[in-house]
């Protein structure tokens, strides 16, 4: 009996002594290689930080992602920005994005279920600033539509609820209905 217990403790001690792979803890920083494959299906499993250096339109921004040398286009996942023909709401969305996130550090969240398989160029992500998701903020204020069944589907039902509420309250583009 004593032998079995001693063996169990030895195995437990050995398992606890195994090195933990770096970068797999929640919220732990990881060194990000300067490669377009950083955002592939295997590595986009955490929240990398990025500094927003430009806003292209209501749902696309230019960012410098931690550890990467090149600037990247980041498209807000799950939503469809307004077209310039939908003025003044297009301008409001643009101003909101510029006011809130231009030259600020944001966190990017990739979808755990499905992601953009194109590892180069445009990245689809949920953009978080100080605990608020910019994607949801635009939909809630009627400054973007949901784009269901895109590569990122994690928040689709949440966005549908926000869009429904914006329609009911006639906010943004829904004020014209």
Topology of this protein?
Layout: H1 2-17, E1 49-57, E2 60-65, E3 71-76, E4 79-81, H2 89-101, E5 105-109, E6 123-129, E7 132-133, H3 134-140, E8 144-146, H4 156-168
Parallel strand pairs: 3-6
Antiparallel strand pairs: 1-2, 1-5, 2-3, 4-8, 5-6, 6-7
Describe this entry's structure for a reader.
It is a single chain. This protein has 177 residues and is an alpha+beta fold. It has one domain (34-176): OB fold (Dihydrolipoamide Acetyltransferase, E2P) (Beta Barrel), CATH 2.40.50. It contains four helices and eight strands; from the N terminus they run H-E-E-E-E-H-E-E-E-H-E-H. It has helices spanning 2-17, 89-101, 134-140, 156-168, and strands at residues 49-57, 60-65, 71-76, 79-81, 105-109, 123-129, 132-133, 144-146. The strands form two sheets. The protein has a five-stranded mixed barrel. The protein has a two-stranded antiparallel ribbon with strand order 4-8. A hairpin with a 2-residue loop joins strand 1 (49-57) and strand 2. The longest helix has 16 residues, at 2-17. The model is unreliable at 11-45 and 112-119 (pLDDT under 50).
Decide which structural class fits the backbone. Answer: alpha+beta
How big is the Rg? 21 Å
The major pleated sheet works out as: 5 strands, mixed, barrel
- Largest sheet, spatial ordering of strands: 1-2-3-6-5
Report helical residue fraction.
25-40%
- Quaternary state of this entry equals single chain
At CATH level 3, the topology is: OB fold (Dihydrolipoamide Acetyltransferase, E2P)
Strand content: 15-25%
Summed over residues and divided by their number, the pLDDT gives a mean of 75
Number of helices: 4
In total, the number of domains comes to 1
Number of strands: 8
**Overall spatial form:** globular
The helix/strand series, from N terminus to C terminus, equals HEEEEHEEEHEH
CATH architecture: Beta Barrel
